[in-house]
Design goal:
This protein has a single domain, classed as Sandwich (Jelly Rolls), CATH 2.60.120.1350. Helix content is 19%, strand content 31%. The chain starts with 23 loop residues before the first helix and ends in a 10-residue tail after the last helix.
Length: 320
């Protein structure tokens, strides 16, 4: 025989209250805790998703390839270079590689004069003087081959970035001309360190990021790189850069353009005596996260959270 007992939900007026069980507030907490945990989990997941989208590492980097450039001003036994002179006429055209526009100004007067950026594959790490201005002290581009850029101080010493990309890093070294001048001195420039080796000489390249093309507009950030530094108390730490060296450009933010400037300790009546050149290669760019994409993800997640919180779970106490 099966007995069925119907629960009497009404407590007799003389029944004792069982105070050993949970209070109504404790019961409410039991139901609130899982839902609160789920809320925290959703918020955490949202933060991870937004952080992933915002992180430059989630996008493929673009390494600007100069090796496809094949228009030359001159070709000789040690290699070829282009300095803006394609047909002997004055121009401000510059040149472009992988969507990055490099400034250049070529003037045909006085036998030809250029500033800004040239590109080269000249391999001559030993010949001193201005006649070897297109060679990197390493002899070759980064990785031992290919074209590399030569920067020379002037109003055209800038490069413009494609929309949606920001500068990440670049590899830099001295040119043969600047390196040997600092190491040995010449009729225009002093030997770094002086005869005693104790002179606190230095030679600096600065990358400055701007919010407009052409190295114009508002300054977003700057990065300094010392191509030579003889200011150490211990002269054994003094150095002249003679290898390709990576420079972090993330401090320039989402720059639309980057301008290069030179400064140093060897100054004369007409400015910097040290040849204001540098060799550059492997410019790396990273995609800028698109704000509207982050907004859509945030909006969708907020909607999901609102629906989850607004819909009471089964057994939850009303009014939570």
């Amino acid at each position: 025989m099966i007995y069925h007992f119907e629960k009497n939900t009404r407590r007799p007026h003389n029944a004792k209250t069982d105070r050993s069980g949970p209070s109504p507030r404790t019961k409410a907490t039991r139901h609130k805790t899982p839902q609160f945990v789920r809320l925290l989990q959703l918020v955490g997941l949202t933060a991870v998703c937004l952080g992933t989208l915002a992180s430059p590492s989630s996008h493929a980097d673009l390494v600007v390839d100069l090796d496809a450039l094949d228009v030359w001003t001159q070709t000789g036994p040690t290699g070829s270079y282009y300095n803006g002179n394609a047909n002997g006429t004055t121009n401000n055209d510059g040149w472009t590689a992988d969507g990055v526009h490099f400034g250049n100004r070529y003037d045909s007067a006085w036998g030809g004069f250029w500033s800004g950026f040239a590109y080269s594959n000249v391999n001559d790490p030993s010949t001193a003087g201005h006649g070897n201005q297109y060679a990197a002290i390493t002899g070759t581009g980064w990785g031992g081959q290919g074209n590399y850029a030569i920067a020379y101080s002037g109003t055209a010493a800038f490069f413009d970035l494609p929309a949606g990309l920001r500068p990440s890093s670049i590899w830099v070294t001295n040119t043969t001309y600047a390196y040997l001048t600092m190491r040995d001195g010449d009729s225009f420039s002093k030997k770094f360190g002086g005869d005693s080796g104790q002179d606190p000489d230095w030679f600096r390249l600065t990358f400055s990021g701007y919010d407009q093309v052409g190295g114009q507009g508002n300054l977003l950030g700057s990065v300094d790189f010392y191509l030579a530094d003889f200011r150490f108390d211990d002269s054994n730490l003094d150095y002249l850069i003679n290898q390709w060296t990576a420079v972090d450009l993330t401090g320039l933010g989402a720059a639309a353009s980057v301008r290069l400037t030179f400064a140093g300790s060897d100054m004369g009546a007409w400015g910097l005596n040290t040849p204001a050149y540098a060799a550059l290669d492997q410019l790396t760019l990273t995609a800028v996260p698109e704000p509207h994409g982050l907004w859509l993800v945030g909006l969708a997640t907020a909607s999901l959270l609102f629906r989850r919180v607004s819909r009471p779970s089964q057994g939850a106490i009303a009014g939570w």
